[in-house]
Each structure stands twice: as structure tokens, then as C-alpha cells.
Write a structure and sequence with these properties.
Layout: H1 11-29, H2 46-66, H3 75-78, H4 88-98, E1 100-103, H5 106-113, E2 123-126, H6 128-137
Antiparallel strand pairs: 1-2
Length: about 140
Amino acid sequence: MPQGSYRRIDFNKHCAEIVAQTSLLIGHLNGADVTVPVPTCPGWNVSQLARHVDGGQRWVREIVTTRASEPPSDVALRGLFGATDEDPETLSASLTAATAEARGSVTDLLLTIYRRLPVSGLDVTGDAKLVDLRLERVAFG
């Protein structure tokens, strides 16, 4: 690619990749020693990295759901000194709740978007309330 150019990723693919990568992280947390240092994040351990990812997803969710004109504070993403030895199951549950993905037939997805089918009619990975909240914030039709 020429200098200064970038590869544009499809929005849906990007969202699916966030869910997929978060699922992989969750899978590695189960039974893990979260105090192990992360070589690519000097000074951080697995617990801090997981909490950072979790906080980042929640930070973005707040921006999107409130339609914030200015980003909220990101202190929770950076001040992770106390998050050095969290329970892996607690981290996994929090990360699961921070991401959400809804799947279904095109018909079911459209009916859900137009609020003619409840979110519970879809296959939701993560927090179904988050999917419902996002749909409440967006007007279709």
C-alpha cells in the first residue's frame, strides 16, 4: 500500500472481530493465573489487561449509547494499579457483559430493528440488554 493509505475494514466485520477476540480472551482467562506479566504491556499483568479491555468496551459503549459529543473520562482504562489479582471468573463475566452480538435470519434481524420482534427472539452473545439499549437509541424507518 502507498504510504499514508490504510485498509478500510467493514464495520460489521470489525464489530464481529471485537466479539470474537473478546471471546478468545475470555477463554484464556478461565483458570488462568492472572498475575502473569504481559510482555507486550510492560508493567501490566493479565488481570490489568483484561480490565483495560473491559473498560475500553464500556467506554465506547457509553459514547455510542449517550451520543456523547465529548468522550467521557478514560481514567478507568488507565488507573489499573488495584486490578492486579482479580478473580478470572469475575473478569470473564464482566467482559462477556461488555460485548454483545445479535444473530438471526435477515427477517428476524429486520423485525427486531423495527421493534416488531423482541431481542430475545435472536441468538445473542453477550448482554442482550445492551443490544436492546442500542436499538432504543437508534431510529429506523
